[in-house]
Amino acid sequence: MRSATAEPANTGNPVMRVLRKIRLPLDDPFAVVGLLIYAVFFLVAIFADQLATHDPLEILFDKDYQLAADLRPLEDGFVLGTTSLGRDIYSQLIYGSRSALLIGLTAAFMVAVIGTVVGLLSGYFGGWIDILLMRAADIAFGIPFLPFVIVLAAFLEPSIWNVVLAMALILWRDTGRVIRSQVLTLRTRAYIDAARVSGSSDLKIVFRHIAPNILPLSFLYGSIAIGWAILTEAAISFLGFGDPETISWGYMLQDAYASQALSQGGYYWFVPPGICIVLVVVAGFFISRGYEEILFPKLKE
To answer: Which of 4, 21, 132, 236 is spaced 20 to 30 A from 69 at the CA atom?
Structure first.
């Protein structure tokens, strides 16, 4: 059986070829579970305004005008209790899904696009273009990722976009290297030679005949980047470099840690965001497993 990247891409409607290449990995049960997890979090993020019971940053008071702090789950109607500052944990958890998906999907898109374009140009043109781009990849490999994000967040205004920017600047290296190696094999295929003979320009060959064949590989690394982005944002927020005005699961963990929730038995405060982070990251790896089988059908055997 041939891998998905071995299929000629010089016939038929180019849009239909792309759609066939980026099909969802519904044949793999793990990938289906991952997609269902993402679907649930998507719905939660979209309808967060309706699902949340309070503003996640609002300081709440009880009917006696006392600070509603450190309330247990279901106490006074709070689903997951409140923080030491009297904020609703359930509402923070709901709104945190928006930050997680926004960061994860944006960073994954940037990593996949930059890595794919770099890999395509480097692998197809070779020469000084290949040398320049691969040396840039070597530099990116030499930069430790988490310290780089911390330094970037320290010098820039606190924002969730610091994580996206850091991933776009650093993590394209893996995607670019792998895409380049695949393009090196594809550019020698007969249908590429036929496209050259027919008068197709280099850019047309790259983006119309080669690019559709490596899209599953791009999606594979994009799905992995989602998990990396969410984990990175959680780590940055936990270390205190996140945006204090944006509620995220990492912000919740940092807030719980600073308030010594563990020593006080406040598991309802930090366990839910931890579980959400684990679920979203695991879902990304489940989906990447499905794309591996699209790329390498022999794995099913």
So the answer is: 236
Assess contact for 276 and 231: CB atoms under 8 A.
no
CA nearest 95: which of 273, 290, 257, 294? 273
Residue 106 tokens read as 């944006």
CA distance 169 to 161: 12
By residue count, the chain amounts to 301
d(CA 183, CA 202): 13
Euclidean distance between CA atoms 173 and 115, whole angstroms: 6
* 74 Cβ contact list (under 8 Å, min separation 6): 81
Q: pLDDT tens digits for 141-193?
A: 888 888 888 888 778 777 778 778 888 888 888 888 889 988 888 888 888 87
Cα(18)–Cα(2) distance, integer angstroms: 18
Residue pair 187/210 in contact (Cβ under 8 Å)? The answer is yes
Q: CA-CA distances (angstroms) from residue 114 to 107, 109, 119, 138, 171?
A: 11, 8, 8, 15, 9
Each residue of 232-277: pLDDT tens digit?
888 888 777 777 778 888 888 888 888 888 888 888 888 999 999 8
Q: Compute the C-alpha angle 116/118/124, nearest 5°.
A: 95
**Contact, 242 vs 250, CB < 8 A?**
yes
Q: What's the whole-number average pLDDT of the chain?
A: 81
Neighbours of 103 (CB within 10 A): 25
The whole-model pTM stands at 0.77
Residue 235 neighbours by CB distance under 10 Å: 18
Give the H or E element holding residue 287.
helix 267-295
